[in-house]
Amino acid sequence: MASKPRSNFCFLFLLLLLHFYLGKSQLQLNYYSKSCPKAEEIIKQKVIELHNEHGNTAVSWVRNLFHDCIVESCDASLLLESVGDVVSEQTSERSSGMRNFKYVKTIKAAVEKECPLTVSCADIVALSARDGIAMLGGPKFEMKTGRRDGKESHVTMVEEFIPNHNDSISLVLSRFQAIGVDVEATVALLGGHSVGRVHCMNMVHRLYPTVDPKLDPTYAAYLKLRCPTPNPDPNAVLYARNDRKTPMIIDNNYYKNILQHKGLLTVDEELATDPRTSPYVKKMAADNGYFNEQFSRAVQLLSENNPLTGDQGEIRKDCRYVNAN
């Protein structure tokens, strides 16, 4: 009987310890309200300025979030450049076509001027994606912050986590479900293809030597004009857009297109026909408000994948490099 109070004490201690660490690790809204009150506004203004000046940066911010957060953690590992023992994730084939990394430095410099070594690059990735989505006519929503920056590249894991352009819908669903993104949210995330474009080398297999019978014939003819050879130069800027009607607006036209067999990739076609996803595709095609609701939910889920918080990681001074010891 004498050991019971001690057992109860140990149990309560463990509960308190668990509560402490869980509470410490949670992201929260307005995380910088005291340490850097103007942080989110500064990031938003820079996103707007860069979008107005360069036009395509907002799309880059959305893609950065996907590539950073699906691989291991939302820790800005994507932004690390190759130096010393670090091999950048940007060197992976999965990162082909990504650009505008240099403008992250512009955003970071503005934040550092206001609050040195306070706002993480990981939060800049998340917040710039949120604000980029708004610039592209997508939904406006709040995003939790408090992420810290990782100290290593996950380049060896990129291909394991990021689906290839023409992987099956089953594989795509499994990859997202592994990080807590459900089927409905995955369908919504793929709506980001609304402002995407695909390099010819990733879709010519649907055009040559014969046209994929699942492709709309008129659309296939258009794609052949965009990609006139079965062996495109991987360095040439030859591509087609998923959404020709509103190519720079995040909306539900992507779903309308794939229901008409006008998707560029295998996964686009399967998304519209697979019984697990087709009901959501039809609902999103019919209701842009519903798509916006699910897209914002999906982006938030993705942005909260396994973040470093509390005493983990660091706050990088320069998003391209780990801080010097």
In short:
It is found in: Secreted. The chain has about 325 residues and is mainly alpha-helical.
How does this model look, in words?
With 325 residues, the protein is mostly helical. It folds into 2 domains: 39-161, Peroxidase, domain 1, CATH 1.10.520; 169-303, Peroxidase, domain 2 (Orthogonal Bundle). 46% of the residues lie in helices and 2% in strands. It contains 13 helices and 2 strands. The protein has helices at residues 3-25, 39-54, 57-69, 102-114, 121-135, 158-161, 169-177, 183-189, 217-226, 253-259, 266-273, 278-286, 288-303; strands at 197-199, 239-241. The longest helix has 23 residues, at 3-25.
Name some characteristics of this structure.
single chain, 325 residues, mainly alpha, Peroxidase, domain 1, Peroxidase, domain 2, 2 domains, two-stranded antiparallel ribbon, metal-binding, Haem_peroxidase_sf, glycoprotein
